[in-house]
Protein 1
Amino acid sequence: MALIGRLFVILFGFLAACLVAGIIVVGTVLFPEFSDFAGGVIDPDAINIVLGFGFIFLSGFALLPATIVVLITEAFYIRSVLAYAIGGGIVGLACYLGLIPFDPDTLRFDGIVRRHLEIMTGAGIVAGLVYWLIAGRNAGAWREPRRPLRPPPPLPSHSPVPPHTPSSS
């Protein structure tokens, strides 16, 4: 039963991390355009649509690498915030490099834009931190046995003894 609850926590943490990463990616990619509006009105519906697509896009690309990081951290009880930040950075890097064409003849990625690489890696780091806040702090806790309930403390010696009631037959 604890495993089922843990899966829901992991799923919620993953979705929250993808939402934060999507907001970061969309905000930083669109930042140069925001500064060129010269005080013009920004349509909030368009921003909501762009954020929604960013969330869907990142959650689809990040699912497999993030699942690998989650499985490793759950299996080895890794609860360090640094491990999740590094894992998130690696997931962000993997998502970006998954979009760039790879030339197998030269063993190089063609067309890497350094700014975009930094944005995706930074968004992955922040997403890893958000995931740690929600689910990573208790990684592997579902496998630990429950602590037994402590018995109530003994009554003080000068307290009255509760009356004994005979059982009715």
Protein 2
Amino acid sequence: MMNTDYFVEMVEKDIENLLSMPLWEDVDFVKRFFKQKQGNDVSFYKRVILQSKEQREHWGKVAMFVYRFGRFIKYHCDSEFWMKVYTDMNQQILEGKLGVLLPIQAQIGFGTTITHPHGVVIHPKAKIGKKCKIRQFTTIGTSKSSAPFDAIPEIGDNVFIGSNANIFGNITIGSNSVIGGGAVVTKSFPENSKLVGNPAKNLNKINVKSKIFAHRGAKSFAPENTLSAFKKAVESGADGIELDVHLSQDGFIVVMHDENVDRTTNGKGEIKELSLAEIKKLDAGSWFDEKFKDEKVPTLEEVLETLHELKFTGELNVELKTDKNNYEGIEEKVSGLLRSVKWTFTYIYSSFSFSSLEKMHSVEPSAEYAYIMENDTEKMLQAEKTPFISGIHPNVSWFLKNAEIIEKSTKKFRVWRTEDDQTLFKLFKENPEGIFTNDPKKAIELKKRM
């Protein structure tokens, strides 16, 4: 049994030190800490901080927890020990000792109005009385599925819940309640209550068809674009897998995101200036975690064979990294390899480079092609009028801001840079063709709860 008491005690000590800081009595510091805008009519300090000591303690403690351990655990949570540390701290401190802003088994009485500049978090076991008003970025219940979190919040009659709410679980919602614009409601929403505003939707009535693509493999759990990451992606049950390809100096198709090996190996140099033998000598795993020491940079052929052996039956998105380097002949090489075997999976070609897609299409006209874009609507329009391009892969921020343009399009949209739960829920409402994520396991679990 692993003992994590030392780490839990260390966090508790940090919390005590934080709360004893005289800066908490400084109005300007508190405003900056909570990123409060200037020029409010009512003093933020009096209205929020002094109004509730519990609020101040909650946010202070959570901030210190995230500061000390958040980023570290993010990159080490695949380790059994650190996962145990994280779980123990989460349960013993954040849940067991702090609760949440409105703690476990909270009773929110008749007619209560609750507001907070950063939103309101309500525990799954809370009971919300009749005619209550809860405003701004409310989260009710939990997206977790393991005990003891499977509680059933109860929301009374004639309750108003503000915009951008997330409501999880098998929740009982009373009659004539109103859920504000942008809300996500997953279960048991009664017909006589209302979802108001745009794009408020009841996901219980939506068939979420979006395919989950493992971005560079399951890169949250293994070093990106390695065989380990692709194996993890298959294990997660991802509908698709995305990878990136370059050409080495001697003409081999190398799977890596960057144009150089500096970030994800212990070597240096441009891929186009290194031979495959030189690239194969590099360690592509230790930067992520020591347990991946000596992980090698794979060739596309090695990845294809691995996925075939694992009987992966989803879609493989091969991104041609030709927007910065013009790899002469890469289109012919990639197409020849993909067409050489009847694989267990289907595949898509994508690129930021329109000319590269044109070349690839001339080589393999029967394949599926997608144009990748950041926030460039002109690119989208170019793809729209190009018959052989069937897909568009935009940045999530552009996708969520351009619903009217997307609705008129005939193309398949697959969206990237989508990690946090709130963004995933927004995308599930819109049902794009695909969602690229570093953590396919989490996305799949959230999708199942819809």
Protein 3
Amino acid sequence: MTLAFITCLLALFVLAAIGAPIALSMIVSAIVYLAVKGQDLGLAAEQIIQGLYDSFIILAVPLFIVAANIMNAGTISERLLGFCIAVVGRLRGGLGHVNVVASLIFSGMSGSAVADAAGIGKIIIEMMRKEGRYPAGYAAAITAAASTIGPIIPPSIPMVMYALVSDASIGYLFLGGILPGLLMGVVLMGLNAWIARRRNFAMEEPVPLRKLPRITANAFPALLMPAILLYGIYGGVTTPTEAAAVAAAYALILAGLFYRALTWKNLYSIMSESARASASVGLVIGAALIFNYIVASENIPAHLAGYLDGLSMSPLAFLLLINIVLLGLGCLLDATTIILVIVPLFIPACRTLGIDLVHFGVVVVVNCMIGLITPPYGILLFVINATTGIPLREIIREIWLFIAVLVFALALMIFIPGIVLWLPRQFGYPG
């Protein structure tokens, strides 16, 4: 490593340590690198502008954010919850199962774990806490754990970012996330059923079967969104970015015209909030583009690949090592930073070792989502704490078993690549 790169890292760590936003810390440290190197400081702005404007796929991020915010503001979430309660609410620990199933369905619409937790998650937590049926910490913990499924089942904002840095097919990445997302739902529901029996959680009054057709019809337009998105992408009708635009438009028509749940004031708030969230993500993406330029200039990926090649490490051992590293980083960094800054370092090594980039990408995204609920950073824990007022210590006390079963599901994906790759292969993926 050169003096310029060491100085850059030192500036990054110092700024992050004093509480500066990670995106701004990266941009400032990149400028420090250019200054020490004696290069034009305007290169930082050039890399941001060039990277953002050359990547059409990035446009999918704000569009999926808009779609998620519209669904949360309208009555779509409530209708989906009503459908889930009718289907699985009658089981022991029913509202816990409803929580997971609602996240599975909502994940096919938003692509964002935070949107899931802050929207539909807040509603289900209030239902679970009503009349003391579930401890507040447990309701918050299972909501946070279920929200991690949001970016695994397509559409997925983190997968869009991974495709940006790896050149992997976003269509096959989306397909690769379906079975892992369902697996995560199964292990969470299994754990919820076990805990419900041990703690003797109350059973909900079952919804009469005669009401199920009406409840299903009420939620059917919302349930159609994942089908429309998947058909658009894999039927060759739209690109993933165009599918994101379709999702936003469909959510707007559904909430505004069909359900009549939006006012002009609500729409303005939705667009303002979406713009702020998109700008926040865009700033991190821009900072990552500069950092990736620095990493490429220092030839770090090639050095890392050569080092690993010299160790004669097997692909499985490499995957296990990287996932342990990422699980540790997930305790301290947000998923966007890990995917855009850390993961590109390992892409050349994956190619050298023959690791499939779609398999690697899905595993990385699952890993990063587990990081969202892992203390001390665990941004989903803070989101739920902020929206519900449930103390963090109560959430953290209940979250560990959910983290354990999600890590178990992650291990299955690592050791059995077919869980990720079977569906893409059915659609012609050669990997």
Protein 4
Amino acid sequence: MTTQRVSRSAALAAAAFFLPVALGAAAPAFAGSQQTDPFGPACASVPKEGSGSFEGMAKDPVATAASHNPELSTLVTAVKKAGLVDTLNNAEGITVFAPTNAAFAKIPKADLDKILADEAELTKILTYHVVGEEITPDQLADGSFKTLEGGTLTTAGSGETFTVNRSAKIVCGDVRTANATVDIIDTVLTPM
């Protein structure tokens, strides 16, 4: 049991050290990015005003902005358990593929509880959802992107209909936060 704790702690310490470096090294300046409107069927459920609105989320860093969206509460809980709030909030020019609560609900409860209890595995899964660059809607049409976890995810589609790894649909894309672009997805991605 002690060995397992050490390996989890070591994995988290490594993530805490290397993620900011990877984010800073790979991230272009976010301030000069091209502004577009959010798209997708789930965007209609976003509040029109307040901290959970598109305007409100644009004022907060990504983890804080996600905490204002009730559809992302499971993701926010996972990010907190993995100790990634500060890392994500301090990164610049990243893209986060954010699974909804319904996406997490597709995972059998026993399996989800096991993942949430294993900080190293949880960190691996969550960092697979983050790309160290801003991804525009044009790039989603036929893209391949290296994730902070070290794997690659692919995107395909056109107009306002895009998939990630051929399994997850972007249900509300190109949501801006103070430091990131968020594409909300309907399925939790697994590192390959």
